[in-house]
Amino acid sequence: MEKLIITAAICGAEVTKEQNPAVPYTLEEMVREAKSAYDAGAAVIHVHVRWDDGTPTQDRERFRVVMDAIQAACPGVILIPSTGGAVGMTAEERLQPTELMPEMATLDCGTCNFGDDVFQNDMPTLRAFGKRMLENHIKPEYECFEIGHLDTALTLARKGQAPGEPMQFNFVLGVGGCTPATVPNLCYLVSQIPAGSTWTVTGIGRHAFTMAAAAIAMGGNVRVGFEDELTLSRGVLAKSNGELVARVVELAKLLGREIATPDEARRILSLK
Ligand code: KMH
Ligand code: ZN
């Protein structure tokens, strides 16, 4: 089995300091949280950015400053900026970090409910995002919140409308109204991806560590972080993203799976 790639989704676009005071907004806070995750064993940081007051933004220059600072503090780390942004943003706004030519970026594979809002990803949007990633040589992380999103990702790649194999999927399970975070659902999704693909699971909220344990056992990879969960266990706020990553490292140790360094993750993800 390959080593385990841990991704830390350190801030997201929706969570707030009111929910957990350690949620980062400023540059200094972003670097602090990225470094805590990296030091604990994360090879990948999934990046959203905020203005200092916490407002989510897809501003290209904000991404540039934050990603440069994280890279300086966490040598070699793989950065996956979000093109999902926050609900309600236009496709043009969301695409801005792709202008920085990151090695990877997220590509959200369909429309779904998101809290009380709708996360809009219609087919013209997906084709535009796929085209941009082809042009800028960016490897997508295909974000699938729903079983049907996987079909869409495979169709885009088959038609040459988005980068193809080897593909990297992130199965985000447990968003309300989307595919529930269960082991049978995860097994089904994994059974449908092309040979040679890689995959990660993100279990939302209380599902974080059950999904992590399943992925560790199945040979997949794991994402945790404040974007996805704010607590270590019921009622116990995580003090940092590093604490969440450390819990995954602990599970991996118990199950006998080694942790990938950024360099090893780059090879596993076919980035070099
Ligand atoms: N903030 C969510 C609406 C991504 O990063 O690509 C979308 C999201 C997905 O976080
Ligand atoms: Zn995200």
Overview of this structure, please?
- 37% of the residues lie in helices and 20% in strands.
- It contains nine helices and 14 strands.
- The model has no long low-confidence stretch (mean pLDDT 98).
- The protein starts with 5 loop residues before the first strand and ends with a helix.
- The strands form four sheets. The protein has an eight-stranded parallel sheet, sandwiched between helices. It has a two-stranded antiparallel sheet with strand order 3-4. It has a two-stranded antiparallel sheet with strand order 7-8.
- 49% of the residues are buried.
- With 272 residues, the chain is an alpha/beta fold.
- Helix 1 (27-40) packs across helix 2, helix 1 (27-40) runs parallel beside helix 8 (241-255) and helix 7 (208-218) runs parallel beside helix 8.
- Helix 7 links the parallel strand 11 (198-203) and strand 12 (221-224).
- Zinc ion binds at residues 9, 12, 46, 48, 82, 84, 227.
